[in-house]
Amino acid sequence: MARIDGRANDQLRPIEIIPNFNRFAEGSCLIRCGNTQVLCCASVEERTPPHVPEGEGWVTAEYSMLPRANRERSKRDISKLKLSPRSAEIQRLVGRSLRACVDMTKLGERTITVDCDVLQGDGGTRTASVTGGYVALALALKKIGAEDALKTSVAAVSAGIVEEQPMLDLCYEEDSCAQVDLNCVMTAEGELVEIQGTGEGRSFTIAEQRELVDLCAKGIEALRTIQKQVLEG
Amino acid sequence: MARIDGRANDQLRPIEIIPNFNRFAEGSCLIRCGNTQVLCCASVEERTPPHVPEGEGWVTAEYSMLPRANRERSKRDISKLKLSPRSAEIQRLVGRSLRACVDMTKLGERTITVDCDVLQGDGGTRTASVTGGYVALALALKKIGAEDALKTSVAAVSAGIVEEQPMLDLCYEEDSCAQVDLNCVMTAEGELVEIQGTGEGRSFTIAEQRELVDLCAKGIEALRTIQKQVLEG
Amino acid sequence: MARIDGRANDQLRPIEIIPNFNRFAEGSCLIRCGNTQVLCCASVEERTPPHVPEGEGWVTAEYSMLPRANRERSKRDISKLKLSPRSAEIQRLVGRSLRACVDMTKLGERTITVDCDVLQGDGGTRTASVTGGYVALALALKKIGAEDALKTSVAAVSAGIVEEQPMLDLCYEEDSCAQVDLNCVMTAEGELVEIQGTGEGRSFTIAEQRELVDLCAKGIEALRTIQKQVLEG
Amino acid sequence: MARIDGRANDQLRPIEIIPNFNRFAEGSCLIRCGNTQVLCCASVEERTPPHVPEGEGWVTAEYSMLPRANRERSKRDISKLKLSPRSAEIQRLVGRSLRACVDMTKLGERTITVDCDVLQGDGGTRTASVTGGYVALALALKKIGAEDALKTSVAAVSAGIVEEQPMLDLCYEEDSCAQVDLNCVMTAEGELVEIQGTGEGRSFTIAEQRELVDLCAKGIEALRTIQKQVLEG
Amino acid sequence: MARIDGRANDQLRPIEIIPNFNRFAEGSCLIRCGNTQVLCCASVEERTPPHVPEGEGWVTAEYSMLPRANRERSKRDISKLKLSPRSAEIQRLVGRSLRACVDMTKLGERTITVDCDVLQGDGGTRTASVTGGYVALALALKKIGAEDALKTSVAAVSAGIVEEQPMLDLCYEEDSCAQVDLNCVMTAEGELVEIQGTGEGRSFTIAEQRELVDLCAKGIEALRTIQKQVLEG
Amino acid sequence: MARIDGRANDQLRPIEIIPNFNRFAEGSCLIRCGNTQVLCCASVEERTPPHVPEGEGWVTAEYSMLPRANRERSKRDISKLKLSPRSAEIQRLVGRSLRACVDMTKLGERTITVDCDVLQGDGGTRTASVTGGYVALALALKKIGAEDALKTSVAAVSAGIVEEQPMLDLCYEEDSCAQVDLNCVMTAEGELVEIQGTGEGRSFTIAEQRELVDLCAKGIEALRTIQKQVLEG
């Protein structure tokens, strides 16, 4: 079975990361993974929320889709007076992932909020938010002279089983008919920070789960190279 | 007194309108007015709200700023559970302006929602939303084969008095110290659809008000030319 | 064409302002403009919101309609959990207008909130709120011995084009079929503080806009006389 | 001990009921009990909520205080995004009381909503809302030709123990230092529809409770006479 | 007429109070009154809300039903974004009742919040919340060594008129067809703290009201004995 | 290193499942895993949400913690007007897990809502909600004669790395200092439905991830035996 866009099963979609897309944020980028586009902006504030120990910093994330990011327009959260539960889930994931990169003591008493706003969504918006969010975060830390607070990098990608075939980096068409969907967030050292897998159409064996993690690991290595180029460029 | 960016007092900032920026919306554009950037997406739905007479259509607008559109990050509406009153005011203005272009009977029983999301705000976001929103609307009408529902075009710009001098198209630095701020929405025929003026630092004479309207009229003519080029291009 | 209530085109409806209608507010009045009735109460608090510079005061307004102020009952904001966007727009206008009268340094570190609650609405509620709100504000400043903080007065009225004729101070029936609706807020010196005009049924020329402003200026002069009588009485 | 306003312990405050205060509501009145002023408007709609059996009608009430109804300004419900729990409690009481007067089958498939908005509160606003709400309801039923749906009338008053003395119709000063506060809603036949009593400063004996009910019964008889005069006048 | 569960008209349902049902709360119990089950948890915090005078404490209550506490599932408050008005009314009653037991000066600057969560509701949940809430409160005061702040005890029960017969402690079936429903909260001394009575199907005489209070008084005496056993056991 | 409660590293806490704990729900149980207690109630409604294809059914879940489920009291969602993001995330997980057991066509046009309310939380509340939620769901399907809609069973447990040792079924003390936390939902066939792993204190290798999944698989087998006993008993 050929993939809808002709990719090999272990191949990422074309990735583009435009750094400093927003001129006001301390760090920002527009990340494109195929037709998925997420604007990631890291904002630094010189105070921390109450739960943070004195002398330490905090990193958090917010995630949202613009109303017409998808094939059909969806209502804004504010018109329903509810944060979309899916957004709530995703922004918790992105926040945990980005915190894994930062030494909070070296950051000092600051909060960095990474806003991930999906301009166009074609599958993989949560993993693009982690990958692009890391770039925004790293640029912001450089801008404020706190690069040493960066312990490692993170990047993320999904893999899934579509028509019984394991595939890397599902686009919307693939995602919407995937039997299994799994995504991983990994560090520069190739270790896991987050793993989330779901049997959408059927359950999956432990062996299948392992194969999907291996696919993700491969994709993340490629993403890491692109992140480095952007940050060093 | 020279303007901060060297423009003449009756000169617009550089304008760029990128049509079809979003691949899913029936019509869309990214409009740049200097450093202000607004993504305008027109979405068509085949139903109308209850207050619309049978056989007619409806055009409405929503306006929002991304959290880091400004120099300082602001909280999302949903985290305050309130639509920003400023956004409420602006989206009512944009909606009225766009409705002025459309023959609702020719549109038929459809709703077109024009989402104006400010990616970067440097003054003039409400007028950019009208100018770009018109382009998105016109593209959507073309896409669905309802160009004949378009009665006229609209474009908008602001003018103000800064250090006692009338100036066209204020950027943020000018806007934040303006004594008077006025914006106009005008049709292709050079008639007014909306006028809103505010004395921020002082009141203003009827003569001053007239001068500002004349400045706006001049700027809107230039904007109309750009809109036409984009739509015909 | 004769007006529905027999007025001349440049004639105000009967105006009545009952000062001190509420016994608890520092300043208050009930303003009647024809069948429109707005209760305006100015409340003084000895603290200011965070955005106000130290040593200065603040003036703000809130606007709301009682559920049966209109021909049809409308739901309360709280049962929809949303401030009506129209109310949001109007209370911003009233607040800006009243702030134009006050020297914030002379007011000192106090907030004056002017609540404008429409008991009955028959057109012109926003302009009645400005005109009555000024009276409530002036009475409150007198009560707390801060009359010197008052720089000028403000009053407001609307004008519109109905069946191609420019008319002053539209009542509901006129307003609901107006082609153009414009309102002005002006100071004691006859200068503009706010101008808002909308083409409801059609666009309007700059010449028409000027004519409507001139009509408003005439009406506001009459309103100013009534305000003075009430405040001096 | 003399009462603050010189009344006898079993004496009501001066009562005034101005019928048809609002020109749009099907029935309305402004009720004044001493310095307490409540605007009661009854609105008729030709549909019923889902829980109402077919062929029957529904009567409901809403209660709210204007921000400056009291000695200190309070925030609007909408700015806290919560219906005041006290208002919730009171509007349930008023609704139940008014429903006790109406034969829902004779009313037919209509909803009557009685809005009780407190313009000025000086104690006894919930009982004034019942007493005035009944007048608004009766006027509305007359207006729509459904007087026969009225089974009885209701009126309400409070009594309390202040400095160990039972007193009728507490004003704010008395209410705020009452040891016991009890209110009754009674029909034209002198039967109870609602009774609510609270020991604020101390508990109270069954004998005291009986004495307060007897005081209320006396006051309600006087209120009923005023209601009749207004409705027959 | 025999009662649905064979009880005498002046007989309580079987009562069970399991103390310390929750291991984290300073005081807690599960109270069962027939098929009604309420989990009452008293939580102590070392601070007070702003309205409490310095040096004094505060006692408050919250009441909620689990979605499937009743015969039909009801939506959670959070999915409607509104505290149920009925819950608002009940938690105010429970809070007032429990405050009647406590000497706030002896409590000191602490807040005790008593959460009453209905696991299963079969009539009488508000009175069970008072009776069980008192036990949770007393246990919490003992745990923090503040027993001397307890001035008295409270317990509560309902009585009603069903098919013209006065009955004690209505279960759901009785409650839903009761003509009159009345509940009392009383102290250890047999004095009233709260009384609330409603004519659901018809109004009721003062004599009937007295008979229902007497029934309640009898039931509360029995409840008080059970409370003592639990607290002393 | 010994575990805080003396368990072996691959040993579950004592599990108890009391079926039919709530008499109104079509299916219900109270599940206890050590000191964690969750009340699971399955409610059947004869209609489905709009997104469900005709002829099919739907299964969904809601999750909430009582305010004093934890060591410290937390505010109710409704008093913050926000569904806790953690609850939003968990109820999505529980819903997906339970849907994996049900053949929606055989269920027919019904919605089953499984409410998981945490009475006491000591770690593992989300996995207890899945395990207990399945029992409530299965009981409800039996009650309505739709057992054949059950395709498989699900149960869930967590495992984590604490002080560098992999451990099964973390209690609160272990969970709050875990370096890695991972939970699995598995079917009767031992296949995965959900996997979620997070590096809290450090990242983790793919090998560690595999070991934790194996631990979970072992625990889930034991849970499945208990579920069967309860459902067959």
TrEMBL record, chains A, B, C, D, E, F:
Keywords (alphabetical) are:
Nucleotidyltransferase, RNA-binding, rRNA processing, Transferase, tRNA processing, tRNA-binding
Q: Does the keyword tRNA processing apply?
A: yes
Q: Name one GO molecular function term.
A: tRNA nucleotidyltransferase activity
Origin superkingdom? Bacteria
- EC class, as a word, reads transferase
Q: Which residues bind phosphate?
A: R86, G124, T125, R126
Q: What is its EC number?
A: 2.7.7.56
Exoribonuclease phosphorolytic domain sequence ranges: 11-140, 154-208
Q: Does the keyword tRNA-binding apply?
A: yes
- Pfam families (UniProt xref): RNase_PH (PF01138), RNase_PH_C (PF03725)
What chemistry does it catalyse, as a reaction equation? tRNA(n+1) + phosphate = tRNA(n) + a ribonucleoside 5'-diphosphate
Q: Assembly and interactions?
A: Homohexameric ring arranged as a trimer of dimers.
Can you tell me which family this protein belongs to?
A: Belongs to the RNase PH family.
Q: What does this protein do?
A: Phosphorolytic 3'-5' exoribonuclease that plays an important role in tRNA 3'-end maturation. Removes nucleotide residues following the 3'-CCA terminus of tRNAs; can also add nucleotides to the ends of RNA molecules by using nucleoside diphosphates as substrates, but this may not be physiologically important. Probably plays a role in initiation of 16S rRNA degradation (leading to ribosome degradation) during starvation.
- Protein name per Swiss-Prot or TrEMBL: Ribonuclease PH
The species this protein belongs to is Flavonifractor hominis
